[in-house]
Amino acid sequence: MRNDITRRDALALGASAAALAVTGASAQTTSPIKAADVPPPKFAIEKGASLRMLRPVRFVQADEDVFRANAAKFSKETGIEVKVDFVGWEDISQQTAVTSNSGAGPDIIIGFSDAPHIYVDKLVELNDVTDYLGKRYGGWLPLAQTYGKRSKSDKWIGLPFGATAGPLIYRKSVLQSIGYDKVPEDSAGFVDLCQKLHKAGKPAGFALGNAKGDGNGFANWALWSHNASLLDEEGNIIINSKETIEALKWVKALYPTFIAGTSSWNDVSNNRAYSSQEISLTANGVSLYFSLKNDPATKAIAEDSEHQLLPKGLAKVSPMAGLTLNAMLFKHSPYPNAAKAFLQFMMEKEQYEPWLNANSGYWSQPLAAYADAAVWSSDPKVSIFKNTMQSTYYDGYKGPISTATGAVSADYVLIQMCAAVATGAQTPEAAAAEAEQRAKRYFRRQGR
Amino acid sequence: MSVTTLPSRGIALRQPGWIARLFDYKPFLIVMCLAPAIGLLTVFLTYPLGLGVWLAFTDTTIGQRGIFIGLENFQYLWTDPLWWGAVFYSVFYTAIATFGKFALGFWLALLLNNHFPLKSLLRAIVLLPWIVPTVLSALAFWWIYDPQFSIISYLLVDVLHIRSTNIDFLGTPWPARFSLIAANIWRGIPFVAISLLAGLQTISPSLYEAAMLDGATAWQRFRYITLPMMMPILAIVMTFSIIFTFTDFQLVYAITRGGPVNSTHLLATLAFQRGIAGGELGEGAAIAVSMIPFLVFATLFSYFGLARRKWQQGEAND
Lengths: 448, 318
Description:
The structure holds two protein chains of two kinds.
Chain A: H1 7-12, H2 15-23, E1 50-56, H3 61-78, E2 81-87, H4 89-102, E3 108-112, H5 115-118, H6 127-136, H7 142-148, E4 159-164, E5 168-171, H8 172-177, H9 187-199, H10 214-224, H11 242-254, H12 269-275, E6 281-283, H13 286-293, H14 299-303, E7 305-308, E8 323-329, H15 336-347, H16 349-358, H17 403-410, H18 413-422, H19 428-446
Parallel strand pairs in A: 1-2, 1-3
Antiparallel strand pairs in A: 3-8, 4-8, 5-6, 5-7
Chain B: H1 8-13, H2 18-24, H3 26-56, H4 72-78, H5 81-112, H6 119-126, H7 128-131, H8 134-144, H9 151-159, H10 173-200, H11 205-213, H12 218-246, H13 250-255, H14 267-277, H15 281-289, H16 291-306, H17 309-312
Helix pairs in contact in B: 3-15, 5-10, 5-12, 10-12, 12-16, 14-15
């Protein structure tokens, strides 16, 4: 894969042209996005500055194309060379760890959600950039603030680029055939629906294997929709609670209605099962819908599919957290001002809006004004993803984000608690106690 | 008779210099020859190993420097049911997979040692599982064991109609454990078979001819000629096989990531999970270090147990 951006690339692939190709929106149309007249911060760009950035590989090709074009545009306007490397999602954490520990490597890394909270001591604060962008584009959305700011402070240690969510996706015709127009919001109603789907031979399926995205998404939903959580507001571990026991009993009741084998599912298993019509209900990002829609063989499945926010259960709003792209600027960078200027440039309307549109709804905006981007009205089935970063739920909810909250998620502690009960390996009480013990182990040192 | 005496000046010229004399000094020459190898071992083997052992005694996490905490990591592991589960499965996995690989590999080696058409081609084909990258074969097995799309389930359910439901290979602990062992055996057979085949070909045919003249049966020829003659190579191959199997990582991590419910964690996968994914570098290192006694024991047992010279020579052990 090429990592460098030449000026020829920039000329050949203008950001608006790429956006036009992907979204079909007219590049000439006046954008409805409102930008307040706020003076931008003046960064004294270091002489001879050049930047190297690492970010997760694109999910849709246009993401990479427009991102590269935007970076090339920055280079053209400022003379600052920017080299962007794209690496696999599984590798970004390790590469960030090496960069952080060695104090060498990329100036900027876009990691996932809690990454800045792990390397907080190695990062440059970004308040000058975030203050400006927040004032200019209608303010930062709740999830962006949660992940971008250091816990219990107003210091921005990360710059959120966007988030993707995993709401329900279901076959409309199958639900209608068993008497449902949409998925019930209450937990008991959801079990009833799944039982009927199972009886109809088109069951539901949710990952209960060691699946970082989908497995954790299901486990968190099970807990949060029963008002259970890993932590309280003060950061005390409260996973071994009566609410958790109720959540686990619900999982136990739900599991027999799933298609067989979900306890070994990883992150792609539900995509495959849904695409092959083995299941009629699961939770996933918008990528599943687009892969169905863009393949003539499965287009009919996409047309028959609907998205819905995860049922609330006892929660006040849909308990769904978004996986957030979170940019970090490392202290070892010899060009911090150039890096700040670059981050600011990438979030400006002229660059960010085409990139957001190009992602077809896969990433949703962290700044309120971008809710008016064309992508959100391009397909009604995508608009549900627009408010992903309005979520008040996150990994580690309700407590402060720390290294340990990420570790609990990465070590699949909550998924395994659910899977152990679902498969009958443990009682809800025993599983909750074990999860508490494992979480405490991580929090004894990393909960800082 | 004439005697020629070399001029004394000539003798003086041929006196070696101090550098030459130094290199003629045997202990110095040995040290000099070994120095590059020792240097490389120090840099690339001793340092990483030493660092790993040091980390095991610290509370280092990713992003944070640690301090020396003595045996705390090991004390915790002693009380950790997941570590005990990984110890159990690592030993079980190694024992069953090694037995399977040796039984099938030795049998295959004996077959391949015979003369038959296209012998070379068949030997090359046997090597295939070994030369395919582990992750690629892991992905293949992941598909084979898929709960919805397994080719085995398809054959049994849709083609042969022997079963009515798909097999859930990886969804419950014991089937998942045996599924991984089967994948490891498939992958390891070529190494054992080809190594043992090389050993078989060093046995002189005259031994078998003499035994046949004495009226030895096929089993007796195997028991009293093949097996004793093969013991040195069996010991070496088994030692390596045990090490490779006990420290396996890729197959398990690519197929189950230690699931379901941590039932297939090997010590290597648990070390990675805790150390890298979980960020507890010290604890991950401690798990990795905890593998060393098992490996040393297994290595000593297989090497010295099988390589005893009297046994090799077909005599009783002392």
